[in-house]
Design goal:
The structure is a single chain. By secondary structure, the chain is an alpha/beta fold. The chain has a single domain, classed as Alpha/Beta hydrolase fold, catalytic domain (Rossmann fold, 3-Layer(aba) Sandwich), CATH 3.40.50.1820. 35% of the residues lie in helices and 23% in strands.
Length: 279
């Protein structure tokens, strides 16, 4: 499936691009952003996949996080997909936390959502196949994200042992089966069977994870959603119970915004770069 470059801007010695393509998995046209560091001009580079949160598109991370500078220093490509399928015939909802902009990185099984809302398969399979086949990047991958995207990064890493060298998250929804955002999305996309929700719940998945991949999580203690929607302590407790390494860093004074992400994204890129370079 061909990809069409629709944005191309010089950035820290490399290129910040945006591509458009027809997604067979999602049955719609999709966009994704790619930052290629200067090192990619000489040889393929490893990739950090970034998943954004509610209401976001591929633009939020590339315009607000300031990650390109650190990716250029480390020789890592950044790939940031949209957060949901798009198009006039794609099912939607009036709420900001469901439908377009709120795909939750699951494969929907209920009508009408199942036709398009298969963001899990898109991120895990279709998108990397396109990127790795048509751009100067390797098959060596890491994954990260913010909020809903942090949820996506964690569940995808936990469900796919050996596929990612490292995983991290900012302000992730770690237990969607137990919080309002998650309950609304999972019941809509997957139906009322709570057992089916567990397949997309990091706190449940970590209990039986086959790979002890360390998880780095940054969480602001002034986050307005900390106690109602995020509750990172639930994941940490579940991880500690089974000996799964989770680094939970509570950052004083930080909220849920991209000011928080921008403050620590350099540390996350360096963390992933170390893992991506490991033999």
């Amino acid at each position: 499936m061909p990809i069409e470059r629709i944005e191309h801007r010089a950035c820290f010695g490399g290129w910040q691009d945006v591509y458009r393509h027809r997604s067979a998995v999602l049955d719609c046209d999709m966009r994704f952003a790619v930052y290629l560091p200067p090192q990619a001009a000489k040889a393929p580079v490893p990739v950090l996949y970034w998943l954004s949160g509610l209401t976001c598109t591929e633009q939020n991370f590339i315009t607000k996080a300031g990650a390109q500078r650190y990716a250029a220093e480390q020789g890592v490509a950044l790939v940031a997909p949209d957060t949901s399928p798009r198009g006039e015939d794609v099912a939607d909802d009036d709420g900001y936390d469901l439908g377009k902009g709120a795909g939750f990185y699951v494969n929907a099984t209920t009508t009408p959502w199942s036709r398009h809302y298969r963001m899990y398969d898109y991120v895990v399979h279709e998108l990397p196949q396109l990127v790795e086949a048509q751009l100067p990047v390797t098959h060596v991958r890491a994954i990260s994200g913010h909020s809903m995207g942090g949820h996506g990064a964690l569940i995808i890493a936990l469900k796919n042992p050996g596929r990612y060298r490292s995983a991290s998250a900012f302000s992730p929804i770690v237990a969607p089966s137990h919080v309002p955002w998650g309950k609304k999305a999972l019941s809509t996309y997957l139906g009322d069977d709570i057992e089916a929700w567990k397949a997309y719940d990091a706190t449940e998945l970590i209990k039986t994870a086959r790979e002890r991949l360390p998880l780095l999580i940054d969480q602001g203690d002034a986050d307005e959603f900390l106690h109602t929607q995020l509750q990172p302590g639930l994941l940490k407790a579940a991880a500690d119970a089974v000996g799964h390494p989770v680094i939970l860093r509570m950052q004083s004074g930080y909220d849920h915004s991209y000011y928080f992400v921008a403050s620590f994204i350099g540390e996350h890129v360096a963390y992933h770069a170390t893992a991506l370079r490991a033999s």
